[in-house]
Amino acid sequence: MNFRIILSGKTGFLLLLIFLAASLTHKSSAGESGDGPAMLIRADDMGMSHGQNQAFRKLIETGMPLSVSVMFACPWWKQAVEILEEHPDVSVGVHLTLNAEWKHYRWGPVLGRSAVPSLVNDQGYFFPSRALLYDNDPQLDEIEAELRAQVQRAVDTGLQIDYLDYHMGAAVETPETRAVVEQIAADYDLAISRWFGEDYSNITYSAPIGSKTDSLVSRINRLDSDAVNLQVVHIAPEQSDMNDLIDLNEFGLSDMAGHRYHELQALLSPEFREALEQNQVRLVTYRDVVREMGLDSMERPEIYKD
């Protein structure tokens, strides 16, 4: 489907849904059809916490076409499912999880620590970083078993699952694990994020707190008309359990809650809506991409080629 954004005052989206005049391909036909570039918003980490879920609810209720990546290994995944059951148009992905990065708030494998001992620390939690995980010599069969368990948990909810992606990149760290993810995707007839030649950006993640909206608008003003433009975002409400979380990794952002709240505000801002309208941006989801391009069009991106 093609989604033309029509500005409706200062609040909310009015979305007129019309069929695509031409299929989405690696070389987008947007320019030929007179439409603007295609943009796919992938919002990561739903199910991680109650606060995260409330931010997702707020964003979803705008009606904006979204691809939402759920962490089915995290404590709040069931609440995420309840929210998504109310919004079947949202494209749902499994955020394959092999890390738990927060101080005082940890999680472990769906299969339990005894089933996949090489994936966890001595307390049974996932390691906070890719480096620590792979320093522990994780066994490939255990990685595959755990990732399959997460996907099966997602499928068993009854939600339509459209795609896979990977929390902190851990599940695609090596050629062997990439092959595992590709095989799981094939077995479940799922897409893999970034395997469609997307023009990837997470520019709003590390942008200064006061510049999130400007960075997002800047991105929209220079979208590639010859690709699906993937914008990855991380969101949180202003006051929630996120405010008490501290990243255990040195490379983590300070005031993570503030960063995520302002990413949400950027997506809800009139400046964002106006930029979409001015650039005639077509918001699409992974469900749309799969429908128009087909799973057979997937190819491992250059960044992950062996």
TrEMBL record:
<keyword id="KW-0378">Hydrolase</keyword>
<keyword id="KW-0119">Carbohydrate metabolism</keyword>
<dbReference type="GO" id="GO:0005975">
    <property type="term" value="P:carbohydrate metabolic process"/>
</dbReference>
<keyword id="KW-0460">Magnesium</keyword>
<dbReference type="GO" id="GO:0016787">
    <property type="term" value="F:hydrolase activity"/>
</dbReference>
<keyword id="KW-0479">Metal-binding</keyword>
<dbReference type="Pfam" id="PF04794">
    <property type="entry name" value="YdjC"/>
</dbReference>
<protein>
    <submittedName>
        <fullName>ChbG/HpnK family deacetylase</fullName>
    </submittedName>
</protein>
<dbReference type="InterPro" id="IPR011330">
    <property type="entry name" value="Glyco_hydro/deAcase_b/a-brl"/>
</dbReference>
<dbReference type="GO" id="GO:0019213">
    <property type="term" value="F:deacetylase activity"/>
</dbReference>
<dbReference type="GO" id="GO:0046872">
    <property type="term" value="F:metal ion binding"/>
</dbReference>
<dbReference type="InterPro" id="IPR006879">
    <property type="entry name" value="YdjC-like"/>
</dbReference>
